[in-house]
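Handover notes (outgoing to incoming on-call)

Open items:
1. Cell division ATP-binding protein FtsE: sequence verified, structure written out, both below. Nothing else pending on this one.
2. Nothing else urgent.
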Amino acid sequence: MTVLRFENVSKQYPGGHQALSEVSFEVAEGEMLFVTGHSGAGKSTLLKLVHLSERPSRGAVVFGGRNLLKVRGGRIALHRRHVGAVYQDHRLLTDRTVAENVALPLILRGERRGEIGKRVREVLTRLGLGHRERALPTQLSAGEQQRVGIARAIVSEPQLLVADEPTGNLDPTLAAEIMSLFASMPERGTSVLVVSHDLALIKRMRKRVLILDHGRLMDDINPDDLAE
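Cell division ATP-binding protein FtsE structure tokens:
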């Protein structure tokens, strides 16, 4: 089953900058893959189109069989309940504790309070943040803030997780642990799409890789071909 499909997608920003040009690919249910390329290649724009932070200029982005161009108004929030997102700037609410930030997706889904508390504690423990649940984001290091953002994105076990340089502020050991966590998510039914420029990490993970160059999809590499 296909979870996400790009059909000849192009994105041009005001002023004429062409971020993406005729990009087409599919993501299967329970698949993990990487998107890489030089700075400005269009990687972050691709994720924004999935999360409905941006709209394509041409082509179609199809998620769960629905063309996202048709998702408007209040349905945007409903769509985002199925897409967990990890950003480079974390986007944490500074007046909420770590636990409250992580709980937000579950609250929006109407989960029971007891279930919310249980799942928040579980995911914070998995990410080594169990002792920080009552802290405010401003009291955390950059690496801890990054992990809180990851916890918030995965706590609801979304249909798709998109992550923009999720290991950028983490040491190599923790980065490897986070990637291992992401790699286990397809077993729970979550497809994972990770933007990263860390070629060594990508090679170690042995997952499918999409390569963007100046907004164009230049290659779609299978795991068995990575050694080459």
